[in-house]
Amino acid sequence: MTLPVESRDFDPHTYRPDFPILSKLIHGDIPLAYLDNAASTQRPRRVIQAMVEAYEEHYANVHRGIHMLAEESTALFELAREKVRALINAPTVEQVIFTQGATAAINLVARSWGDAHVREGDEILVTEMEHHANLVPWHQLADRTGATIRFIPLTDDGLLRLETLATLLSQRTRLVAVTAISNVLGTVNPLEEIISLAHAAGAVVLVDGAQSVPHQPTDVAALDADFLVFSGHKMMGPSGVGVLYGKQDLLESMPPFLGGGSMIRRVWIDSFTPANLPYKFEAGTPPIVPAIGLGAAIDYLNEVGFESIHRHERRLTERAHAKLEAIDGVRILGPRPDQKAGIISFSMKRIHAHDVAQRLDRLGIAVRPGHHCAMPLHKRFDLAATARASFYFYNTLDEVDRLGDAVAECKQFFAGRRRTRAEQAPSAESVKSESAS
Ligand code: PLP
To answer: Which of 98, 164, 213, 392 has its CA 20 to 30 A from that of 409?
Structure first.
């Protein structure tokens, strides 16, 4: 049997056998089409195996012991740090800090850099498309300091209204916090332009790379980003590990956030001196095996190739747009496929996003309903919830076709019903699942 070739240069079927979960049958005998990658990706055997091997053969706490396992474990953990450094082209490994995830990394910056540098009357600039992880920590900082949050608004197409940036930036702007790619609209933001304008105004820029680092090449040196954050579980690593990258002088100037073991040089009964980077920000036992798993995921992604991943996901996105746009009553949020990544959020006339997702699940297709941790964004488009399909390199054109057919079927399925959730008060179930990102 010849497998369908997805494109001349890239065939996801080459990789799918590495992901046992992708060949799962659900609801009895329906092949799973996993299209919820913006929430979390699946991981290949090699990543799982790297973690099993770490636990079975090399595990001990890091940086503390001088016995053989402690040294092996430390070497593997620090090798993972070097893999992250190379992935994002950070100048040094000292600038790569392991955190619990993107959310934890942003909170670290808000607490440490924010409390040290932001004062009453200062401004923090965000965008209307931010994930709550890149919004709430800044609200909390503003509450603590008396600073003001301002935001870059969106066009109806889900692009940043960049012409407002020049007027929003001023000497009061301390920080611009911007996502590289929207987790709802898929919009790819013009980071170079934003960063150079922000720097000209004297502001520091934090880039939320949670949806970009897993899918496209990243070069923090070329980008001149001050901070970059991302999560392991959105790029085939395990949950529980993420990364904060920062410019050396900024990180050096920041006080430690969490206190405890590992982050100190000396401790006296009444004081302490902090350790050097990156340990200053890694209090307590770090996510040792998750970081090793992330390192294995990076190796795998490098073998697949970020350019290929990007091109393939563009193809999937174009096809999905064409399929969904052909269905009357479907509204896709965000820009055209050539301005977005592989994330498509949509609403259906008179059918609640939770009903859409539930029906699609019955047809084997995993998408996510809700506000996707972006309530201000949904408010901007006058929606409480959307259904979101999001792709990774292992998804196929066939799965995208199944998505299109399932959405058309969903429309028919609910056409005969008098009342759907869209016309009722939100149920307990929908409220519960809307709290997830
Ligand atoms: N930023 C964006 C754009 C996201 O999509 C997410 C997760 O959905 C996050 C931040 C938070 O990531 P985590 O939950 O892994 O900390």
So the answer is: 392
